[in-house]
Target: Probable nicotinate-nucleotide adenylyltransferase
Amino acid sequence: MAAGKEAIGLFGGSFDPVHNGHLSIARSFLDSGYISALWILLTPNPPHKIEQSLTSYELRLQMLKRAFAEWEDVTISDIEDRLPNPSYTVQTVRHLAKAYPGKNFYLCIGEDSAHHFTSWHRWREILSYCELLVAHRPYDKELELDPEVARDAHVIDHKPINISSTEVRNLIQSDGDISGLVPASVQDFIHQNNPY
Model:
């Protein structure tokens, strides 16, 4: 990566809804020493979740904005909603690299995604625009990556919080308690707007 450029992390997902596990991994990326800011990219139509019916983009965006409202080094971006569907990562990083030539981008992913990164659409082209920051459980064995991927990857320690958006949605639909799973501002938004 070019010296002197601001280093930005890109953290994408459907965030349906955003939960404390997302906040935890965002903090690990920011604390890694590689980036000075994190852009969170809300995906409208993830190609690998075509069969899943997502909550409206606007509601997911509002929850993200509330979750990270007090994080000065985080920007919530709707850029993927303004690019053609489906929301392939290569399209997003290509657009951002051309739009912001003065920045270095790092694609921030979890280790599960890193394991199958070579199945991503035009993955080599992704690596031509940005390097990877891979969040790895520090107590697990060493992360084994495809050699081509490993050349452009930086592994950082992250102690995950075991929460999934599916679990949160299921709890909401069964009138369960989601306090402690999502930020209080998101919980209030869900109660007020009933998106699930």
Remarks:
- The chain has a mean pLDDT of 93.
- Helices lie at 20-30, 57-67, 89-99, 111-115, 123-129, 147-150, 165-173, 184-193.
- Strands lie at 6-13, 37-42, 74-77, 103-110, 131-136, 153-157.
